[in-house]
Amino acid sequence: MLRAISCLLLVVSCLLLVSCARSVTQIVNYGDQMAVEVTLAGTMDASANRYFLILSSTPDYKIPLPPPDNPSWEALEPGSQPQQGAAADYYSNFYATWTGYVIVEPGGCLLAKGPFVQNQTVSRETLSTLSEIDNKIRFNFRLDRVFGAAVPAQIYFDFISVPWPSGAAKIPADHLSSTNNYISKVSGSILTVNDEVNVSLDPARDIISCKVAVQ
User: Which N-terminal residues, if any, form the signal peptide (predicted)?
Assistant: First the structure.
């Protein structure tokens, strides 16, 4: 009799343990910042070029592509006056699909948050200065500085290098090999997008890889 009761208690205990195990909710930690490292074929040159990280909460975002895919669109910041085409077309075709961007220029890495509306001033904040010049471009930023409190589950991005001739059109030279790059906002997510070497490009404009991590 005692053995039967002991067996019954053991079975009940096992059932309770299984029930408790099934009711445990897995905790998912979301990152609050993004770290970016871009590798170029040559030394970065922010005087003769500009570099853009475009960010969006939707896979339908658009960027000006390098030739031959793009014969005329320039890669500019919202608010800039294009040498080719009408400013309104840049807003409707591109800027309206961006949530934010980072531009690398002689003054450093600067972040701008959308929405981007024609005739409204774009506010930029400095993320870092260009203290170390080599073939790497590195910067970090808080995700809420771009997306606000509602960071999307998937963050879409592309990286563009652009020649920056004074008084002439700024046609993009290179961008990432895929136009559907995205990373999860889950902390610890890492994505590296590799690109082929293009010997026809100035090495300072030739993007070799882009590594993005959510921390």
Answer: 1-23
Instruction: Write down all domains in the chain, each with its CATH number in brackets.
Output: 31-214 (2.60.40)
Dihedrals phi, psi of 175, to nearest 5 degrees: -150, 180
- E-assigned strands of the chain? 33-40, 49-56, 100-105, 108-113, 124-128, 136-142, 154-163, 174-175, 181-184, 190-194, 207-214
Residue whose C-alpha is closest to residue 104's, from 142, 133, 130, 65 = 130
Q: Taking the chain, what is the end-to-end CA distance rounded to the nearest angstrom?
A: 59
- List, in order, residues 6 or more apart from 124 with CB less than 8 Å away: 103, 110, 111, 112
Alpha carbons 94 and 96: distance in angstroms, whole number? 6
Token pair 């445990």: residue: 24
- Over residues 185-195, the pLDDT tens digits come to 999 999 999 99
Spell 163-176 as b/e; 16+ CB within 10 A means b. Answer: bbeeeeebbbbbbb
Q: What angle do CA 197, 64, 172 make, to 5 degrees?
A: 45
